[in-house]
Design brief:
Layout: H1 2-16, H2 21-25, H3 28-54, H4 62-65, E1 68-73, E2 76-81, H5 82-108, H6 114-139, H7 157-167, H8 173-197, H9 205-223, H10 229-246, H11 252-260, H12 269-289, H13 297-312, H14 316-340, H15 355-381, H16 393-402, H17 408-417, H18 421-452
Antiparallel strand pairs: 1-2
Length: 453
């Protein structure tokens, strides 16, 4: 009997804690390790792409990315190169997942209150405005390149956290948390920049109207408390296709879908606890009656009922984020790097002192830490924000240096900003070099800080 009571107690504790399971699973520690692993995969994918582009005699990935892939349904045919399917299709899922994470942080995480969010949001704004102004200053007299101002505004959270993970315990937890919150707010800013300032083509208002109708249908499904993820997958795919045809970049569909995806569960926390508590008591009775044999019909029926209650306690937003986060981090981002990071590095042709290169380099290496520090300093001195425990101005500036690691988002914007492949390649090489320098400077700053202590 004591053993049975101990097992029942464990089961009861498990279901009592279920409502908090999502929060526990998404604690900063686990989030940090996931992003760090994603950053390492992203690094290796980048190296492979660069080797392939510069040594095509060994293997040439570009041949694969230029192959066309078509989806045909009746008379309808959607045909694009494999690279475009990745950039316009899979990256929509990436933006969808990023937007879901931002939405969760706004609801219950580091951005859920003004007290928590004011400092990282202000830092993110500063870390976007100052680099953009620096780029514009270098390219003010160059109409062909001035659209690239969005390139140095982005921070690659996976790469930045990947570098921090190498340093291990030498990086204070307060700085890791601040940089993560900053990068999430920065992602939101990058998404808005792409949505409003980098349309793919001329906007087709008629198709946009149809897309708005699809969004209205999704809202109706939401209001009717329909929580079947399959329906949202179908309507989400239709929304993606319409946005792709509308002239707005297809990835914006992921952002729009995030806004209207249901966040409420089919059961309240109170009912969930009451139902599962009743089922635990019922399970205990049947378990004892059947002489501690778990695989009896009554116990299995109770377990299935528990599964049903757990399913009711998960919203579509939670289900999508949980199921797609790993796919996005470990597959889509490395695949994007493989398809887009393959730049031929020819230093005889590459001019590091060109307007584009200097704008990106100075924006990421200088503009990011200066903008983050300046805006944060203003917020703290004005009394609108305050440091969390363990943070200080030195760690704030160090975080700003790491924020200069711009890769995925920066490369994505560079694909949209320029019509000329020469400028795009120049921008990508500048992103590589600048991000590498930012990472080295960040490591040096952390090492110097620890040495002083």
């Amino acid at each position: 009997m004591p053993n049975i009571d101990k097992q029942i107690k464990k089961i009861r504790k498990y279901y009592w804690l279920y409502k908090r399971e999502r929060k526990i699973r998404d604690t900063f520690s686990q989030f940090f390790h996931k992003e760090a692993t994603g950053g390492i995969l992203l690094f290796f994918a980048t190296v492979i792409a660069l080797v392939s582009a510069n040594f095509p005699q060994f293997f040439n990935l570009n041949v694969i990315w230029e192959k066309e892939l078509a989806i045909s349904i009746g008379d309808f045919v959607q045909k694009m190169s494999l690279r475009h399917w990745i950039n316009d299709g899979l990256m929509m899922i990436f933006f969808f997942v990023v937007s879901l994470e931002i939405k969760r942080e706004i609801m219950v995480g580091e951005l859920s209150s003004l007290k928590k969010s004011s400092l990282p949001i202000a830092a993110a704004i500063g870390g976007m405005i100052v680099p953009a102004l620096i780029f514009c200053a270098f390219n003010i007299n160059s109409p062909a390149t001035d659209r690239g101002w969005g390139i140095p505004t982005a921070t690659d959270i996976a790469f930045a956290i990947g570098v921090l993970s190498i340093l291990g315990k030498r990086v204070p937890m307060s700085m890791k948390i601040f940089l993560t919150a900053l990068a999430i707010a920065d992602d939101l800013g990058a998404i808005l920049v792409i949505a409003f300032f980098y349309p793919a083509h001329a906007i087709n208002l008629n198709i946009m109207l149809i897309a708005a109708t699809v969004m209205a249908i999704i809202l109706v499904l939401n209001s009717l408390q329909i929580r079947h993820t399959f329906l949202y997958l179908i309507t989400g795919f239709v929304l993606w296709f319409l946005v792709l045809q509308s002239g707005i970049h297809a990835t914006v569909a992921g952002i729009l879908l995030t806004v209207i995806i249901p966040t409420r569960t089919r059961i309240s926390g109170t009912k969930f606890y009451a139902h599962t508590n009743f089922l635990v008591r019922k399970f205990r009775t049947h378990y004892i009656e059947n002489k501690n044999i778990l695989a009896n019909k009554e116990c299995l029926d109770v377990i299935n009922a528990m599964r049903s209650e757990i399913a009711k306690a998960s919203s579509p937003m939670q289900k999508f984020e949980s199921s797609l986060h790993g796919f996005s981090m470990y597959f889509i981002m490395p695949l994007f790097a493989l398809a887009n990071a393959g730049v031929v590095v020819n230093f005889n042709e590459f001019n590091f002192f060109s307007e584009v290169s200097l704008g990106i380099a100075c924006g990421l290496i200088i503009g990011k830490p200066v903008g983050i520090f300046l805006f944060s300093f203003i917020m703290i001195k004005s009394g609108l924000s305050k440091f969390s425990d363990g943070m200080n101005y030195r760690l704030l500036f160090n975080a700003g240096i790491f924020a200069g690691i711009g890769f995925t988002m920066s490369m994505f914007v560079s694909n949209l900003a320029f019509d000329c492949p020469i400028y795009t390649n120049t921008a990508k090489i500048a992103i590589f070099i600048s991000s590498l320098i930012a990472g080295i400077l960040g490591i040096a700053a952390i090492t110097a800080t620890k040495t002083r202590k």
